[in-house]
Amino acid sequence: MSPIQELAPFPDISQDIIFPPSDLYSDEPPWETELHLRQIILLLKSLEWLWRDRNDFYVAGNLTIYYSPRQRKSEDFRGPDFFVVLDTERKTRKSWVVWNEDGKYPNVIIEILSPKTADTDKGFKKKLYQDTFRTPDYFWFDPNTLEFVGFHLVDGDYQPLEPNAQGQLWSQQLGLFLGIHQNQLRFFTPEGKLVPTPEEVAERYAAKLRELNIDPETL
């Protein structure tokens, strides 16, 4: 028998593999409901439009954050519904790998509640984002009941944010208000103006043209 034939089969070590420090794919399940999907897309579109001339941030939805101290994909990972990282390169990523991003964690996290996830979002995740992520601004929003709550990190502990007269909460990190508009969570400027999506901007532009007796379809 040749030396090659005498070799024993390789053991199954797939559970012990230490993955490389980059290029890790997101491991998040699909969105739970259509409301979740629409809400996340709305937040993404409006913030990216507002900051369309900036290249110093990263925003994502339903994307895995890997934060294992041992740099393993198989342990210590979470996927917030929506998060923003500031002072980083604006580029496409397969996931957010903390050890490959200069140790950066999200500056802002928003969780979209559901009956299945509400307890986790209000308990375990709140503590995780406070104690481990040290995320300065944390919000949760229920698209069914319209429950909307926010926290800001003060001396290591989350302190509830007080709403303004319009029921909006201030995000110190984003420099924007968050509030409910037509049963959806939206961003508002410091002056209180709704941050639109590109589609909403296009609609307003088309309406203005029609007021001037110009058919936008002919442009």
TrEMBL record:
The record's section on SUPFAM superfamilies has:
Restriction endonuclease-like
Q: Which InterPro entries match?
A: Nuclease_put_TT1808, Restrct_endonuc-II-like, Uma2
Q: Which residues form the Putative restriction endonuclease domain?
A: 33-176
PANTHER family assigned to the protein according to its UniProt record, in alphabetical order: SLR1095 PROTEIN, SLR1612 PROTEIN
Question: Can you name this protein?
Answer: Putative restriction endonuclease domain-containing protein
Q: What is the species of this protein?
A: Coleofasciculus chthonoplastes PCC 7420
